[in-house]
Amino acid sequence: MEKIIVLANGLEESFYNYVQTKGYQVVKLKESNSTYQSIAKHPDIFSFSLGDQLIIAPEITKYFSEDIKNHLIWGKSKIKREYPGNICYNVARVGSFAIHNTKYTDPVIKERLECQWIHVNQGYTKCNTLIVNEDSIITSDKSIYKETIKEGLNCLLIRPENIILRGLDYGFIGGASIKINDEIVFYGNITNHPDYPQIKKFIECRNLKIKYFEFPLEDIGSGIELVIN
């Protein structure tokens, strides 16, 4: 089994090194001129994982080796500079559910993904959703919270504070973290978040560990995982 994760380019080397110690091959996504700079190298803007295949915006094909390209599916949507033209791949998949502003979801994702769709007003759904397990999430978005609770998912609503997104007022917790095996790994120091006690309890009650780094917590775009058997 080969495990690959797509991450933004230009991150702290300690973060890449840690991910690699967990058995992942890292693909680094460089900045694109398709959209605005704050999210221009965020993997969750340009790709969506089906598990053993990635649905991707055509412009990022060049970052993958030839052996991985057999597991790529081109989406039909080109990434545009402004919202909502840049949200088409930013879908949060939680167990048997997919959460998104479904008016803008890439049609290939809708065709390929067998799930129950939850429509929300938030377009940057993957960015704004930390997927803890198959029925539990953390978000700062009230529409995600409201609609997922209706469907019986466990959702912790937190304040949209203390997460950097360069060029904007703040970032999102989904984009500041990745789940690796039995750990939620934060890109930066999550303990400085005002809701850290609740976040810690929510994660640890689900038998998961927390890993963080001693630099400011930053939204770098959700890591997108590909597992090839």
What key phrases describe this protein's structure?
229 residues, alpha/beta, L-arginine/glycine Amidinotransferase, Chain A, 3-stranded mixed sheet, 6 helices, globular
Report on this structure.
There is one protein chain. With 229 residues, the chain is an alpha/beta fold. The chain has a single domain, classed as L-arginine/glycine Amidinotransferase, Chain A (5-stranded Propeller), CATH 3.75.10. The chain contains six helices and 15 strands. The strands form five sheets. A three-stranded mixed beta sheet has the order 2-1-15, covered by helices on one side. Strand 1, helix 1 and strand 2 form a beta-alpha-beta unit. The longest helix has 9 residues. It starts with a strand and ends with a strand.
Secondary structure layout:
Blueprint: E1 2-8, H1 13-21, E2 24-29, H2 43-46, E3 47-49, E4 54-56, H3 66-69, E5 72-74, E6 92-94, E7 97-100, H4 107-112, E8 116-119, E9 129-133, E10 136-139, H5 142-150, E11 154-157, E12 177-180, E13 183-186, H6 196-204, E14 209-211, E15 224-228
Parallel strand pairs: 1-2, 4-5, 7-8, 10-11, 13-14
Antiparallel strand pairs: 1-15, 3-4, 6-7, 9-10, 12-13
